[in-house]
Amino acid sequence: MTKISSKPLSGEKMGLYVDEFWRAVTFLETKDEVRAFFRDVLSHTERQMLAKRLQIAKMLFQGSDYKEIKKELNVSDTTIGKVSQCLQSFGEGYRIVLPRLLESRKVRRLPKYWDGNSGAKLLAGAVALGVTELNKKYKKVRKRRSAIV
Hints:
- This protein has 149 residues and is mainly α.
- The protein folds into two domains: 11-104, TrpR-like (Trp Operon Repressor, Chain A, Orthogonal Bundle), CATH 1.10.1270.10; 107-149, no CATH class.
- It is 69% helix and 0% strand.
- 6% of the residues are buried.
């Protein structure tokens, strides 16, 4: 289990360090950069713990019950309850990321670059998604190119 040092920092100092941590995260541009950073910052166990919490939140968001989540993820009722309470009480971050995560599985990859040969693909995509929708999706793909599966 992860432990905090027994030699605490002042609230002000810790606040500055936490803020710098979040700023560092915002500098990451690709999925590979995010993966490399969190591999350096988090232990294997911490990454697994966070991944399970996200899956619990996703399953709750999709309407799964505790029994189903417990069986699928091999977690305790207490862990599910904590994530559920977070979703119900505040859960602002989950409410931002979960719809995007679920939507990203539905989005088809768009051509990375415009060239003379990709026009037919782009036109087919425009017809399938609608020009306005395609433009929105393309901007998201460019912004988070490697994050969309």
